[in-house]
Amino acid sequence: MKERLKQILNSYHNQREALLPCLHLIQKEEGGLSEEIALFLAKELNLPPVEVYSVASFYSMFTVKQQKAKYIIRVCVSLPCYLKGSDKILEVLHKELGINSGEVSADKKFFIEEVSCLGACGKAPVMLINETLYDNLTPEKVREIISQLKDENSTEEYSQTGL
Amino acid sequence: MKIVLRNIHKQGYKGDIESYLKEQGYTALKKALTLSPSQIIEEVKKARLLGRGGAGFPCGVKWEFVYREKEFPKYVVCNADEGEPGTFKDRLILENDPHLLIEAMIICGFAIGAEEGFIYLRGEYFKAYQILERALEEARSKGFLGEHILNSNFSFHIRLYRGAGAYICGEETALLDSLEGKKGQSRVKPPFPTFVGFKNKPTVLNNVETFANITQILLNGGEWFAQIGSSHSPGTKLYCLSGDVKKPGVYELPTNISLNQLIEEFGGGVEGELKAVLPGGVSSSLLTPDKLDVIMDYFHLQEVGSMLGSGAVIVINKDRCMVDLAKRCAEFFDYESCGKCVPCREGTKRAREILVNITRGKGELKDLELLKELAEVMFDTSRCGLGQSALNPVRSSIEKFSQEFEEHILKKRCPLGICSLC
Ligand SMILES: Cc1cc2nc3c(=O)[nH]c(=O)nc-3n(C[C@H](O)[C@H](O)[C@H](O)COP(=O)(O)O)c2cc1C
Ligand code: SF4
Ligand code: FES
Questions:
Q1: Within 13 Å, how many C-alpha atoms sit on residue B183's CB side?
Q2: CB contact under 8 A, B85 and A55
Q3: Percent of chain B at pLDDT exceeding 90
Q4: Which residue segments constitute the domains of chain B, with CATH numbers given?
Q5: Which residues pair with B253 in a beta bridge?
């Protein structure tokens, strides 16, 4: 990890602009910022560690607690999606996965997050699962997507979560 | 009339560099390199293109400010942080015609004397990220981007930078702080980014759609552009129709279109019976059906007490409870306030609390006065546009649908049975 971070740091000449790109990589690979990595970044960027933490906790896509889930489900709850039934979508997800928004399922497979507009309001309601957008959702469609994800038993690398 | 979506609307158009080159791609850049910077800026000024990100500031004037600055280096930044709920036009351009943006940014760099540009992209736009990375690589490999562009003395580089889930980073000064690797909190203006921008250097910051008009303005001339649409803000606008409308989507139309035409002719009409419209997203004030004739440009929407913003037209039908929707809007701003200034940080929180109480049957009549007063204080004293406009939908729904609010408060009853008052 540190090697890959160094590459990013180098490409920004160790200027603090490198911080967000580094945090994106950390989030994706490790599911959150650990103390060790935070101290490493602080040293490399010549910043107080608290500054690294404060930036990481400001952005909703980063977490300072490592929290892994294979699938991060981001459900849009902004007005246009709400008008098209995003609350029903959330209800189905909560029920099917047995967790509330902001929680990771017991098998560490799913994490649900309520997010602001995802820029797909013409096809509301929508959600992102990891990097894939699902639109024109209905409760049935959501049940189908979730049951497919539950069924597959691959052990691929875990990806990021966000709070 | 299609300017921004002229390629995207063509059958089989793929948005890669080959398709783009077949549609006059990079000919505007070639032309620009034969002109002087001031000639380019003159064309953009003649076009009277207003910024499409929300504030509606004249693009050519902005470029000229930066051009005249003596400080170097200068920067070009594209605001691709699209986050205003109900806005989904920039993503359409980014994913389907990325070179349109890239070419315009290079031209801007040449015009103002910059050698470096940034695209600040919303963190959640994963697909657009991949597409832009590839497009930038294509442009570099064809010699449109990088050192000595098309064998000229002009060099320009573009970096793609990802945001990380903060609506406030769409505000230009917060965006610049974020781009510098800091928390995205807004700066005090003035000074404006044109003078003190990225790393305190002169910076042109424009929205994706604004840039997307540039190549056609250069190829056809500013006067051509200025004749299209409304004389107050010429050209076309990408209107994003969402909510209770039969055919939601992005529609590029001349700016002299009326709200009624937009909804009826293009949106296929209202789903159900019309109650209200938010013409500029959840930061704008509600319009009632008697205002449907309004022309959808910056000037006319302001005249009827609302705003065009980014062009997020959210249609609301009679099955919706306005108290519930006002609460939703307040929740959004409470969540997204960056916390830098007190009026907005505390105001958005209190507004949400009060509205939640009303939807639970615990409101009092004086709450409505309190909310209106809060809206006024926040408008006057908040540091940036988020706080200044956060309570627009709340205030306007209290003004226009007072009965509904009163019924929740006095009779502890939601006329539409949506709020579960207990
Ligand atoms: C809270 C807030 C959010 C904003 N979000 C965006 C955005 O997502 N995209 C955008 O282009 N402009 C946004 N703006 C407007 C920018 O501050 C700025 O005016 C604009 O990017 C300038 O570009 P333009 O002149 O081309 O419109 C936002 C403004 C505020 C106050
Ligand atoms: S108005 Fe709100 S978003 Fe803007 S600086 Fe103040 S707290 Fe931050
Ligand atoms: S409101 Fe859900 S994608 Fe825009």
A1: 17
A2: no
A3: 99
A4: 17-226 (3.40.50.11540), 236-317 (3.10.20.600), 322-410 (1.20.1440.230)
A5: B237
Residues 6 or more apart whose CB falls under 8 angstroms from that of A31 comprise A63, A66, A67, A68, A69, A158, A159, A160, A161
What's the mean per-residue pLDDT of chain B?
A: 97
Partner-chain residue, chosen from A17, A60, A121, that has the shortest CB–CB distance to B166: A60
Q: Are strands B75-80 and B203-207 parallel, antiparallel or unpaired?
A: parallel
For residue B250, report the distance from its CA to the centre of ligand 2, in Å.
Answer: 29
Residues of chain B positioned with their CB less than 8 A from the CB of A135: none
Assembly ipTM = 0.95
Question: Residue A160's pLDDT is what?
Answer: 40
A84-102 mean pLDDT: 97
- Substitution site in A75, A81, A84, A90 for ligand 3 pocket (most atoms within 8 Å of beta carbon): A81
The residue whose C-alpha atom lies closest to atom 6 belonging to ligand 2 is B341
**Residues within 8 A of A (CB atoms), B 144-163 only:** 161-163
B290 Cβ contact partners less than 8 Å away, ≥ 6 residues apart: none
* Interchain pair A80, B85: CB under 8 A: yes
